[in-house]
Amino acid sequence: MKLSKRVHHNIQTIKEELNDSTDLKVREFNLSIQGIREISCALIFFEGLISGQMVTEAVMQPILHEVRDFDQPMDANLITFIKESVLTNSELTEKNTIDDVVLSIMIGEVALLVDGFNTALTIDMKGWLHRAIDSPQSEGVIRGPRDSFIEAINRNMMLIRRRLRDPNLTFERIQVGNRGQNDIVIAYIKDVANDELVNEVRKRLENVDLDVILDSGYIEQMIEDDWWSPFNTIQDTERPDEAAAGLVEGRVAILVDNSPFVLLAPATFNTLMLSAEDYYVRWPAANFVRIIRFVASFVALVTPSLYIALVSFHPEMIPTKLALSIAASREGIPFPAFIEALIMELSLEIVREAGIRLPGPIGQTIGIVGGLIIGDAAVSAGIVSPFMVIVVAMTAIAGFIIPTYTLSFGLRITRFFLMLAASFLGLYGLTLGMLILLGHLATLTSFGVSYLSPWAPFSPWDLRDSVMRSPWHKLKRRPGYTHTKDQTRQPLKKRRRRKRSS
Amino acid sequence: MKGRDRLLAQEVPVIIANMMLGVGTIGLPSRLAEIAGPDGIIAFACAIGVLVAATVLIILLVRRFPNQGIADYSTILIGKVPGFIFNIIFGFFLTCVVATMVRGFSEVTKFFLLQRTPLEVIMISMLLAGSLLARNGLQPIARACQILLYLFLLPLLAIPFFIPIFETGEFLPLFQTDFMSMVKATFGALFALAGIEVMLVIGSHSEDPKQLMRSSVLTVIAVSVLTGILVVLAFGSLSVNQVAKLSDPLFEMIKYVPVPFGIFERVDIFFYTIWIAATYSSVVIGLFTASHHLAETFKLETGKGLVFPCAAASYFLALIPNHEAELGVYGDSLILVWIILVFGVVPLFLLLSLFRKPKQSSTKKKQPQKRRANPG
Asked: What percent of chain B is helix, strand and coil (3-state, nearest 5)?
């Protein structure tokens, strides 16, 4: 619907469109021009999205003060004059339809309506409150930056831009959500990221047809390749340095307003297993930690099911002394090993979930109470064996080493599947379960990239940043799986050794 | 058929190696020792020669008809009806191969690990697990096989360094076996090493047909030599006489490998898990090949819908042998069919292809886009 030339009519229509919401503020005033004529004007905005005081100081006062001396004839465009000569805000747009004005008001802009003009001026003054930049909650590091993304998308863009002062760093803003009209930004480095990848990301985002996008998790689930898998094929991070590193690798970042998690695509199992800190510490330390991480992930995945398989089906595999010790500890336990493991694993999951929901200090207490007291009580009561407690504790600790929270979810779910397989068919069942898991991972792709890259398809160059990482001066190329336009990240010539000064 | 999955140059050897390493590897030393004694090594060398010749013939045929499976060009070469009948028989043969693998695997698994579990449960579980991956197409299979190959190769290459006893005298005297026994032993070795026939179906998916001959022959030789090393190790460490008496001597041999730090009592079970993985990859490739070939025969969009029927057929075929000895007879019959196929049908098709050139139009129609290692 086009804007009318009558300001009151426009106000009425906008109010109707926005259901006369209580937080909708309409500030009507009269503009006196050279003391001869008066023009009705209105500023419309949502309280909370914009500070009323800011509107008065940065919009109303300059208009009242400057327009007073407007000496053009009546038919001259007052709106253009205000836009070009009065207001100093960085983003001022002229809108001609009610829908556009309503949308602008909803995303935190002020609409200026002037009687006699069928154009509105929208002024970007987004100034809602947001929390301060904090340290990351789920991706903590000892060495490395401590800032993290917040819920304000503009701040998040700034956090990336601060790290990448590259003119080719491109942010593309689109709005998704029929009702929410939420801001989503696609970020990439124009002369690095593969055009096919960027277009594919854009296409998938444009196809999202949800009511509202409350978190990047919505987008992640709507654009991923395989929605039925327990494993995430898009990386989410709350670390700006991780996002910037991803962009430099030729990946595409997706920022979602109101979400402190930025998505990175494509993602492989390998990238999800790497931590930002791996690149900040020296390479021997990074390699040591990476090997431990991969081994621990395997331990977290397999230990309970291996225990079930060995105790229930193949006790002859365990050294005699240990087998006797386990048998003695299991004496009087009323449940088979699988039920015993299931009780403990489920208890662990409950404690973990409760710990997240409860306030900080109480959550920690619950963890300790759950881990120590309940575990000890269960052993004393003869419900579970002490070995089972060790197995579960080992699994839990090893599970926390996985750097990506969403990946650890996938592995936790898979652990139960492997336990079930081991309880039915022992070591054969466990092996078969692992093979099904491998088969599943082999079918997964992330924006067409194999989830098992660089191991399958085998990419020797990319192995330099996999389970082990080469020193920085050897990492001369960007990862091959992103098929970047510019493949080198540092000159390919040999590094000269520095001569020692005598 | 719908747009073909492409195999990267690096994935062709992976598929061949995974198909070759499987159920038969475990029983191979015993079979050779039983029939030919120390001459089993010579029979094995002969089998490698036969296998290389078979590979050359198969790849020549595959390269003659790029982007076409055997189901497509057999009808061009021998006519629609005979071609259709041939394709059905070949599809049945491929299903029988899967059935033999699954049955042989189940027998060993029951003996070693799951004495109280019915054979049927072991067979069904393996077929179901294999079907899940086989349904997803060639690229995921190639990727999974690639990972599994790392898993096989590292322990297989490490084994020779950990075998504490090795008697070189076990290989003498040579040339004591009669010709027929040698032929029989060679057949036995072929049973363990066969697998290259899948290239008749899968070979056309190769992205780089020019490299196909070199990579296939080298892979066949490499895998055969690796298997040969295991046979030699079994003969040298356990003695030829003892190997002849054991049904699965490689597991027995692994028991001699000392376990560091005494964490586990029996390390052979870990070797056994690797063997499960090897069988799984063979079953997956076998099921994919059978279903894909039948889909091409019946001009279906994909072979996805035929994977479970093929698995079910394999299961019922696997139930036919009453015991392990009877399974051996079935295995021998399959090798006979294999020889007829490779040294009878394939040369015939090659000969006919000299007179009937492949249809260019259909080749062009099926020409897919090049696949990159990781499309962006």
From this structure: 80, 0, 20
